[in-house]
């Protein structure tokens, strides 16, 4: 296979990989295709694939249209997957504004807010509120880390929903919990 054919095969593979998972970074794409990060950047530009932040924003904007119980301003993190009544996923990049004073550790309420808003977003209702939560912080999250929160509806009985949340950084669990969310519009007389 000549140089031109190799490049065309690599560009096709890059396009397919990003289509299957738009959240791969340039470094992850480089490792998968066995080339340098610079080559990935040049290839992305050539075939019009935006950088991972823009791809994440595009996916989040599309998923936000499906959420019934929250507005885009109420969701903490970027919603990357949603199947109403079943499961959801969001990503939160820890920025300097989220850190404890004189520390590189994120304040816990950001992890809680990401998990709580995801738990409410997964409920198939126009008005949903959290009545109870049981959470566990497993390890501190640091500046620059991306927290991936996954929600799963483990039980739905009438208006009551039990949502399990597991938040990870590089597949290491950093936060977990159960949220008891009530779909207010499914309660008679409310």
TrEMBL record:
Residues 106-156 form the Thioesterase domain. The keyword Transcription applies. One of its GO terms (biological process) is negative regulation of fatty acid biosynthetic process. The keyword Transcription regulation applies. SUPFAM superfamilies: Thioesterase/thiol ester dehydrase-isomerase, Winged helix' DNA-binding domain. InterPro entries: HotDog_dom_sf (IPR029069), Thioestr_dom (IPR006683), Transcription_factor_FapR (IPR017275), WH-like_DNA-bd_sf (IPR036388), WH_DNA-bd_sf (IPR036390). One of its GO terms (molecular function) is DNA-binding transcription factor activity. Keywords: DNA-binding, Fatty acid biosynthesis, Fatty acid metabolism, Lipid biosynthesis, Lipid metabolism, Repressor, Transcription, Transcription regulation. NCBIfam families: PRK04424.1 (NF003359). This is Transcription factor FapR. It comes from Heliomicrobium gestii.
